[in-house]
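During the second year of the project, the team shifted from modelling isolated chains to modelling whole assemblies. The rationale, set out in the original proposal, was that interfaces cannot be judged from single-chain predictions alone. As a representative example for this report, we include one of the complexes processed in the last quarter. Its constituent sequences, exactly as entered into the pipeline, are reproduced here:
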Amino acid sequence: MKLRKIFALLLAATMMFVLIAACATDTADPTPPATDAGNGETAAPPVAPPAGNGEITIVNNKVEIHGALSEFGRLYYELTGVYVDVQSFGGETPYAPALSAMFAAGTEPEIFVFEGIAGYNDARGAGRVFDLSGQPWLADTDLAYISPTDGTPVGFPVNIEGWGLAYNRRILAEVGIDTSTLTNVNAIRAALEAVYAQKDALGLDAVVTITAGAGMEWVTGLHGVNAYLSLGLDYEDTSIIDMLLAGEVDTDRLTAFAEYYHMLFQFADQAILTTGGYDASIAQFALENSAFLHQGNWVDPVFADLGVHFEMGYIPHAFFAHDTPGIFVGAPSWYMVNARADNIEAALDFLNFMASSPEGHHYMAIASGQVPAFRSVALQPEGPLSVAVMEWSGRGQIYAWHQNEMPDGFGMGTLGPIFALLADGTIGVTEFVDMFTAAVSELG
Amino acid sequence: MGGKTGKHTPIFFLFLLPVMLAFTIIIVVPLIMGVYYSFTDWNAVPGTPINWVGLENYFVMFSDVSFLHSFLVTVAFSLVCILLINFIAFMFALLVTAKLKFAGVYRAGFFLPNLIGGIVLGYIWFFIFNNAITAIGSTVGSDFLAMSFLGNRFTSLFAMIIVTTWQMAGYIMMIYVAAIQSVPASLLEAAQIDGAKYHQRLRYILMPLIAPAFTITLFLTLVNSFRMFDVNFALTAGGPSGLFMGQALWTTELLALNIFNTAHRFNDFAQGQARAIIFFIALMTISLIQVYFNKRKEIEM
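Output from the structure prediction step:
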């Protein structure tokens, strides 16, 4: 009896303690534990930040460059004494929720990545957008993120990416096709037919590898649609995306675009087209079982893993009868300097160092294996498709990215299923144009 | 301390405190916040102002064809799953409780798929449906098998039912096994001596006595198939596409995936939250009705 009473009192005391502890988080250390990359990569061993020079936190959305970025941060610390804490989320730890969780916990990193209008709007709503006007690196790039609300630069381009229709140089040479002529739809159709005629002799499963099934809607609903939005237009020309946002389509342009995709679908491996995943589609092209691939240069690391050594290049998604020489190149993500963070000046210095120093150029082009967005970078990345992107962008033959300016979910969720219907033959080009037009009219 | 007075001492409430605290923090508070968010334009970004929009999210939801379609597909999927899983699980349970050689091995074998996570299962079966079965199909010259099950809206849903059944049947079987083993052998023997055939013993002795198990298994299969997300996400991702009321949509997108896509793909968290509330109410209603009717069938020995 007595024992039980003592035990009960002990338990009660414990509960009180827990309650007090739970209510007292305000006094605890506000900095969260330095979590590492979501996939278990380890960060640089924590070097104690020296007093005075400060510390900046950079939140990165690509776990595959975590090591290179941490290494660059460590170098920066050695040179300047400013400690760079790199936190990476991606893969199994989705980036956006992880970043939200940091904000919710009261942590304000100096630099974080955003991927376009949605991320920008979120940051603006929360008062985190810092105006980057006057930063020296702005003169060295065309791809800074410009605020759609007031026209000021607010994003530092992390890298550039691009896509056209990738081709296997050896196969097209064997068929005798001059790829430099493939800049209009008639030339491309003739090339597809020529490869198809020799399909068995070349040992191909299909002429084109393209995916349109569930889970791969981004290929058609975002990258595909961008051809409609920007092919043949000046880089700054937003007329088609503006029309789309107003609920209108250019029917002639849309019809030509639909016929082009219908043609690609007809020359594709039907199983991969309708139900295939990313790996299966990349593997088909990588094993030289198809001559063309509808993917961007982000595939390069997969090629490296698969030990692919053949030469490849890009031709444009030229759906018009007239020539439109150019592939789609843009910045997929930007660094934002957080206006609510403590150490804004140090963050600006760090980004400037990355854009202008030889160490920064080496990090961007070689160590992280990306295509840098700055003209002054003379180094070349290793990936075959990245080299092809640099060829086109070096000649200035590029068209813009507008796919991320569509409302969230519209490309993949609304247009994706319509592409899939065209791919599996449920609908034809006319119905596709009608359904596309009807879906767009909802946006008006 | 004992008797009636003990229940009213402060110490009694202190014992309750940890559970109540956990329940409040983990269930009650999020539920109330969720209901609140469903009436706002909440976008899940900390620091953004939240505005009250009334019933707008609910109007949008019920005028969205994809939501209605998801609801119907989920109901169809759940119905078939409940029947198939329980039938197979019950057969398995009869099999492994019969005096068979290696009954323990079968039991472990049937249970094993349940230990594999749904996402992993989804990817494994994605490969099986897309590559293995199609390869067999083209080898034997069967056009039906050579086409991936995931390419047609009906076979694709059926593929999900197969995987869900394969995953859950072993677990449900264990519940039936436990129930069957608790039935006194003397009752069954007495019936046998009285001349009852096997199916009669099954129908009139065994099944009434394990009615409480049916309450549990039907509840579990109902709730689990209605809430299905992981296999859906990894196996079909909602595909293939199809037409419903003139709109193109993903035909095997179940409710949970529809809510996920609304929140994360369309970046409309408040709308997703409103759908989750309706999802919760629908599931609660259906399962309460099911438990009520099953409970009436239970008998005391």
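The longest helix of chain B spans residues 65-97. The longest strand of chain B covers residues 241-244.
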